[in-house]
Amino acid sequence: MKYRRKFALWTKVCIKYRLWKGIFEINAEKKVEYKKLPDTDAELLAECKVETFRSSGPGGQHANATDSAVRLTHLPTGIVVSSQKERSQYRNKQICLKRLRGKIENLLRKPKKRIPTKMPERAKLKRRKEKIKKSQKKKLRSNPSFEDEN
Strand pairing partners for 53? Predict the structure, then answer.
């Protein structure tokens, strides 16, 4: 529990510092948002918590004996990325950074504003004619009224 308290306090301090530096901004819903992506991998790595662990799967003794798998936790956004594809820790870290950069770019991308399409006039006329035709068919299906004969 002590570690969690320290981590939470440290996170609050970091957020305040980054707000002051202009890396973060707070939106109307009081949520902290990540504003910009660092230019270099070293800067991005500085914002991450790096964990190494033993990978599983193929690779033989080299992969099983060394801590070659890497897990990166991006502290500002909470995105977690891991890789155990390669036998080298350095290459796994590069793969993780590439994946993390892609995820953050996806997070920062704003969706395009949807422009509603208009129905062409010719299509409107065609639809109206079809509706009129259907309504006339339905009228013919109904029972004849005897009130008109009197």
Answer: 69
Q: What are the distances in angstroms from CA 36 to CA 133, 135, 145?
A: 59, 59, 74
Report yes or no on 102 lying in a domain: yes
Question: In terms of domains, do 68 and 103 share one?
Answer: yes
Question: DSSP secondary structure string, 57-77?
Answer: SSSHHHHHHS--EEEEEETTT
| Residue range 89-146, pLDDT digits in tens | 999 999 999 999 998 888 888 888 889 889 999 999 999 999 999 999 999 888 877 7
Quick check: is 123 in a domain?
Answer: no
Q: Report residue 63's pLDDT band, with 50, 70 and 90 as the boundaries.
A: low
Range of the domain at 72: 37-108
Distance of CA 103 to the CA centre of its chain: 7
The tally of domains found in the chain comes to 2
Distance of CA 41 to the CA centre of its chain: 21
Three-state secondary-structure class, residue 120: coil
Q: pTM of whole model > 0.70?
A: no
The answer to the question of residue 125 being in a domain is: no
CA dihedral 75, 81, 86, 89 (to 10 degrees): 10
Which H or E element spans position 80?
A: strand 79-83
